[in-house]
Amino acid sequence: MSRPLTIALSKGRILEQTLPLLAAAGIEPAEDPQSSRRLVLPTNRDDVEIVIVRASDVPTYVQYGAAAVGIAGKDVLVEHGGEGLYEPLDLGIARCRLMLAGPAEPPPVPPRRPRVATKYVRSTRRYFAGQGRQVEIIKLYGSMELAPLVGLSDWIVDLVDTGGTLRANGLAPYETIADITSRLIVNKAAMKTRHGPIRALVDALRDAVDARAA
Ligand code: ATP
Ligand code: PRP
Fold first, then answer.
1. Does residue 75 share a domain with residue 12?
2. CB distance 18 to ligand 1 below 6 Å
3. What gap in Å lies between CA 122 and CA 115, rounded to an integer?
4. Model pTM score
5. Which ligand 2 atom minimizes the distance to the CA of 160?
């Protein structure tokens, strides 16, 4: 038999919300991926395996064909750039918004370009460039909400769902930059060389997404 089709997933909310869709498509991991320390997980199907990677690494694994398909947030895909990838299906999971946020009671505007702390440098640059606004972008890898509290930045660009994290830190949402959901991504070359199994997976997941929406 040919090598199995590899699906790249990240632990946490994407895995949690993807497993029911995969189950509806007839794919179940052989052991619980949330608790397992294994990074390559066989499934009930000999022709499908799951690999567990960091959320922001999923597009890289798929771009280079180390995984034929993967599931990643649109936030992560925009930062990656989408090179070598198709994005055939919006799974509608891990729904949130990429937002500009800052102090709920903003201090006086400083006489310099506003500083924006974010993990999402590309989206942030594009957003402010599109508006012709000059800002200084400060790259962080997490806990963006801290930056305005300690004077590192004036604003942040981060993901917001309930708004609870912003509120807990005395921050408020200012503007929505993008609506975010997770997408199925496919390696462009694999889409040609392994068209049959990939098409079957895309169709089965689309049916699962439609059935959930109905
Ligand atoms: P990494 O491990 O690479 O730093 P991460 O910690 O951001 O990634 P998760 O928190 O599991 O990973 O987020 C995975 C994806 O889920 C994000 O890319 C985004 O699309 C979505 N997401 C993040 N936060 C939320 C949220 N609060 N509500 C809904 N979806 C979210
Ligand atoms: C994400 C995001 C925000 C928070 C927003 O963090 O980075 O901090 O969710 O969600 P809320 O509006 O519902 O509060 P997450 O919970 O994934 O933690 P992380 O920093 O470990 O990614």
1. yes
2. no
3. 15
4. 0.96
5. 12
